Amino acid sequence: MRPAVITGRVVGPHGAPLTQVHVAAVHYDTSNGFRHLYEVMSADTDDRGIYRLFGLDPGSYFVVAKPDVEDLFDDFSFSSYSDAPHIERAIRSATVVNPARPGMPPTIAFQPPPDQDFDMAPSGFLPTYAPSAMSPDDATVVTVAGNEERTGVDIAARAIPTSIVRVEVTTPVDPRTRISAWLLNDDRSTQGDTSCMVESCGSFRFRDVPPGTYTILAILSASYGQPPLADEQKLWGQTRVTVGGEPVVRINLSLQAPRSISGIVAFDMSQRPDLTKRVLTVRAQPAADTRSLSLPNGPLQAKVTADGRFTIAGVPAGRYYLYIDGPYHVKSAEVGRQDTLDFPLDFPGDRDLTDAVLTITDKRTELNGTLTDSSGQPALGYSILVAPTDSRYWCRGSSRRFDTVPVELDGRFSVARLPSGSYQLAVVADPEPGWSGDPEFLRAIARTSVMVIIPDGGKVTQNLRVK
Fold this sequence. Notes:
By secondary structure, the chain is mainly β. The protein is built from 3 helices and 35 strands.
């Protein structure tokens, strides 16, 4: 089967063809329980404004054009676009000067407008989805089959500017520090996150911000070449902002000292390890739904003392999983009644947390079995998917309750170290990447899967047969 083709034309606000504009076929992909728009194929428009996206698998797509500001406004620069109303008023009120020589055009003279605030220039423009939509929700879905060439998928690009979010830091800080800041979008399907870093701690800005609701997170760290900050100096700040298409959104942000997460490591083992000779480290890992930020102050971790206690200092507000780095298997990481290995800890950052209990075990669960065909022979070329039956785990971004194992040449398969609980086993020939975070896929395989119960530290055998 030949792949599919989507082709069409991109025009500007006045109907003129737009050349060398980036056009892409995108579709939704699910990762860690969240839908993201994923670019499958792209091409630039030619001198007629025509694009051609080829090599597409059969399926459904959105087609999006991403013109630059120069494409939409006939090579106006950001500055001239910002000054255009002032210039137009000056031209209308100016005196016409006759040409100095025959054949030359008349001219006008006027005082140029004062320099405008850099922030008042448009930072960029939103991409346009076919036929002329600003978001996938309002766009046309283009479905193609193998060997099909879909023509006439035209895009009328619209000039809807994005915004600048300017943040003023109101807390006095040491000038030898710098701020790392993130703008985190509530809608993770259509827009990624934005980050910036400033050496002078006064203000910073995010450009090209589409309408939406965001969280601003800022963390203070030492400037390059300066000694690391003490824990009490690692200030952070967080606030919410809603952007509705304004040229500039101004936000004040105050910084505060981060708090700590502390607790104890327990041992469900036949022999407790000697912590004076064995180094264990407890780590707070940002959850997938908080974008797993690369914190400038280094990893959030602490060594476990000889009596089993730990304190992770300098933890900003966020959602975290608690892990232990070391050779041992972590059975649970509970805060209150919540196991943070499965469901991330909501850490408000306004007070210390002191009741974390992480349990290490040497009890090992095992799930074994064989996969055979209808004649009883090993069924080769398959993989076994293991997923929890409880749908609460499906969108949490945790991978410890999911696994994919290939079937060996003798038909055997084996899965180790699954937490105790109820699981479904499914047989597939070619598992898609990211399947463990796709609730729709997990609901689909549940109809043909086999359920098993794995007890704490137990070994279970489950044989399977393909028809």
